[in-house]
Here is the input.
Amino acid sequence: MPDKNRSPRSPGLLSRIKSIFGLNIGTMLFGVLLLYMIFSAILYLTSDKVESYQVISGPLSRNETYTGLAVREESVYKADTDGYITYYAKEGNKINANGVIYGIGSTMPSDNEAELTAEEILNIRNDMMSFSKSFNSSKFNNTYSFKYNLEGNILQYAGSSQSGVTTLGGQKITKTDRDGIVLYSMDGYEDKTVSTLTAADFDQNAYHETDLKNDGSIQTGDPVYTLITDERWSLLIPLSSKQEAKLADRTAVRVKFLKDDMTQSGDFSIVEIEGQKYGKIDFNKGLIRYAADRFLEIELVTNTVTGLKIPLSSIVTKEAYKIPDKYLTTDPKTQKTGLMIEGSDKNGNSTSSFVPVDIYARTEDEEAMKAAQKEAQEKMAAKNSDEGAEAAEVVSVPTQYLYFVDKKGFQEGDVAVCPEDQSRFVIKDIGVLEGVYCTNQGYAVFRHIELLDQNEEYAIVSKNTVYGLSRYDHIVRNADKVSEQEILY
Here is the structure.
């Protein structure tokens, strides 16, 4: 008979866990899955991360930009009489000697309602659209230059739309005595030359341009217009010591004008102004496009090597066997490229079997081509000798190639058989290739590269390399963290 005073037996640990979690097959599977996820997360957080990089095209580094000060041959012309002025020359255009610039009369010019032609209106609209597209709020002063230019265009159209001398009646006409480009503004730099410039002249914050156009009366001696009289002009750019050293050996440079993305070449030299070094670029054309600009934003096109840009950390080396192209063949069943490798069966009979290969690179087989050319030359000389003709000087031969293939699947000393002439080639020559790991398919695949240029961080490689990289390929940035054929994702 059980003892009524005995305390009930305490449940075991397993029973208590079972009562809490309801231990069954589902709970066990969930627990295993949870442990696996925790373990995977720990491995992910503690393992080295493989970084990806998308291949881009361009130069090794961006060309440096500068603000250049334009120096040109120009003069300010003043009125020689009092009166009311009417402008006839279009601002920013070139005018020939003896061309009419403006007229001054004793009375206010009448408001002639001259109607502009459709072509003139279209030209004005195009000018406004071009300015709108290139507008930069940080250079608002360009708005005033455009305003003056636009007003000059409209005035010129209106004046030229009236016929004969009646448009000029009652006015004293002023003509230019030289060819030049007309501007209706002045800024105090007209008499400056490279030798008279000071460091203060490069301060854009202190720069001021005065509009000379006047719709009322003017006095004798008032400045009326500026005439640029020589197509030769110079741009001066301030240089740091590093920039000076980089450009010291240059005598010419190509310049891209950021205003309109036009480029042209100029003679280059370095001058000193008040202890500061400046680059001086001399041009002999293109001035009319920038006649209204004293300061110009430019880019010196010094980085001319372009190609595919990759990080130096992506570059690895790989050994590969060199195989002449005549020994490569295609399996008719799988359409894969490979080699016919000589072997023997269990009875000792000679056999050959197809072994697919991974091709990494191709280069011209110069030695084989020289040998073939020499042989062809000797045959041609012997033939000409028999026929009594002179020997041919040059005999051309087809281009022959060497292919670099993966060492996997072969051993040094294996013999490849040519399917066409049954000649044999002993596999032994090894070449070292530079390349990167491409990850387009989710695993690391070696791609050969040809270096063109490099700096401390990046390299430029050819985009025309056979079996090489293409723009927008994805490669491993930290190549030391992976191995070939490793599955990455």
